[in-house]
């Protein structure tokens, strides 16, 4: 490839990036306005963009929709993805390493979590363990994130309903435990304190 061809290729790449940014501006604005119905309608007409980045943080439609509070809408959007592609889409990470499930853990939405795990099972994954155990750049699983943010209902779902092993989830890569994180982040209310202490003691007995 000569210099002229290289310059043309670079120009074309720049043009395509600019077109993509312009196209994704609409769902970005809709999400920031919490216009989730408009967000849903946009992607119903542009299903090919569901796994594409919406912003500079590499967030996709599924990262944003995790905050919509509507499990039925989330299920519908996942169903728009080809059956063979669901597993990949559910594992897409933003620039902080967060998957859509990490984002749902941030909201504490139990039903939304179920909508993701239902499709994970359908994709033939091993009891959704691989997805739940994915860690972000801080070494946090969705379970860790739910506990650190004080989402007791979701934490109860993970530990009691799904019977997940706290040994796997109650530490980060830097060895910071759930108890340390909740104290630092000041989410350590009395009920959460007792709940985490019980499970933390279980981990170390």
What does this structure look like?
It is a peripheral membrane protein. This is Ankyrin repeat-like protein. One of its GO terms (cellular component) is plasma membrane. By secondary structure, the protein is mainly alpha-helical. The chain folds into two domains: 1-134, Serine Threonine Protein Phosphatase 5, Tetratricopeptide repeat (Alpha Horseshoe), CATH 1.25.40.20; 141-205, no CATH class. The chain is built from 13 helices and no strands. Helix 1 (3-32) packs antiparallel against helix 2 (36-45), helix 4 (71-79) runs parallel beside helix 7 and helix 6 runs parallel beside helix 9. It is globular, with a radius of gyration of 19 Å. 30% of the residues are buried. The mean pLDDT is 82.
Oligomer: single chain
Strand content: under 5%
- The average pLDDT is 82
Uncertain regions spanning at least 5 consecutive residues: none
Going by CATH, the homologous superfamily of the largest domain would be Ankyrin repeat-containing domain
Pfam families: Ank_2 (PF12796)
Membrane topology: Peripheral membrane protein
Organism: Vigna unguiculata
Subcellular location: Cell membrane
In short:
With 205 residues, the chain is mainly alpha-helical. Helix content is 61%, strand content 0%.
